[in-house]
Amino acid sequence: MKLKIHPLIVGLTFASTFVVLLCILFNPRWETNDDVAMSMVAHGYGLAAYGTPNLLFSNVLWGYLVRALPTVHGVLGYSLATLGTIALVGTAFVYFLYRLGASYLTSAFLIVLLLFRPVLFPQFTINAGLLACAAVLGLLVYARNQSSLCLAASCAFAFLSYLVRSWEFALVMGVALPCLPWALFQKERRVQLALTLTICAILAAWFFGNWSTSGPDWNYFWQLNAARAPFTDFDAKARLLAQPDIMARHNLSKNDVELLSGWFVIDRQIANPEQLQSILSELGPSGVSAQFESVRTAISSLAEPQLFPLLAVAIVLLTLKLRRRVILSWLLFLCGLVAMGLVGRPGLLRVYFPLLVLLILLPIALDSAASSLKRVVIVIVLAGASLISASTIIAEARISDRMLADVQASHYRTSDSIVVWGDSFPFEHAFPLLFTNPDLRGLRIYGLGVFTFAPFAVARAEEAEGRGLVTRLKSADGIMISARDGSLTLLGTYCAEHLRAEMATAIVFESKRWTVRNARCDIQTAVPSGGYR
């Protein structure tokens, strides 16, 4: 009697083994410092004075889930949730594709092609998009096999995707719209009920998330966030520098504008929300030429090495299986790229990655009746792309591991907080997923960034205690700061323009990957031209 293993067990075994094996062979690190910051917020270290589920980039309910997970051998709950999500997505891909007629060999190559990077360089936006892709596959399985389990799983994946990153969830589902089983939504009461419950759950999560980050403690944070975003994230800086008359009316120097766009938001003479909103109203909209260049960047970024193997496979599958619904999804994808360029957010590879994953999965999921020759061609294409992609990612991972080892060898301790400004501090290598030097995890970080004035931030607490950056910068002890030379030059000019002083710096710690300096403004010495020594 031949033993038949349930495809769900096959998927779980393969996906889990794949994730664990990569974690043994390499040391995964975060793709961006956003995940590092949210891990700090969830577990109360680094830039967070205390732990809280209010992760800001993800829904507060995801924060509660992350905080509920235990720390296992130094691996924090946020890391466990991230890797667990990828294993869950891999399981779903194998199981759903099997139910749609794809072979295990096809699924295996897809897992290598689609999940190799998310395991070694995880990022929450990518995870949200992958969860949304799993939700789409689950719906397609239900449309074919009427499996209640797949329908329930699809709704759960959709809800989790929303919790992790709502905008990416909406983007993936928007591109998938032409391929969804719309007839089921119209005639099947079970599907209508599942859809209604999912929408209600998402609305409840949205309401609870907004309520959790509202109130007096959050008012200034949100006011500043809305006012500074055009300068830090979009092109308001360039437009303002091109109009010195507006700068003069608001008593801002070129250095002030450079500071603001570089996240120096702690001086309210520079980063005053009301003043910034007034400046934005005077600047008006971006020019057509800037928007055109942004759109060009958005489209050309598809050729980046991280995306090109996925793009090539998606195009090959489109030509092999020309279907009107998939073509419409491609058009929506391209429209999404153009829209992101028009709003000034081009080239976000973490946003594009799940969309290309979706465009690879849809032709395979929608064409179970492909000929044997076509199936063989698909397997060969996936195998070749997987090999090329894996070799590239392995090379990146080896370089990353060496950099991580350099940073983890740092042993710097201080009872004072360290001002971290810009990309001078290697967050992703200092706080990897699986292990962190206890000296590094013990640092109190006064971060200049999105979270500076969040209620949980070390920076917010120190400003409230009268130990803010500017106050300490003027003191005899000064501040401990990790910043690039260009940022220090801006700070030196700030001392001259606003404090009528010269800034003095001295290195107190130096390693291969990062440096800490003591900086102070000597208010006894007038230096009209600015600078630092």
UniProtKB/TrEMBL annotation:
Keyword Membrane part of the UniProt annotation: yes
Transmembrane region(s): 7-27, 47-66, 78-98, 128-144, 164-184, 191-209, 302-320, 327-345, 351-369, 376-395
The keyword Transmembrane helix is annotated on this UniProt entry: yes
Residue runs in coiled coils: none
Superkingdom as given in the UniProt entry: Bacteria
Keywords for this protein: Membrane, Transmembrane, Transmembrane helix
Protein name: Glycosyltransferase RgtA/B/C/D-like domain-containing protein
Natural source organism: Bradyrhizobium icense
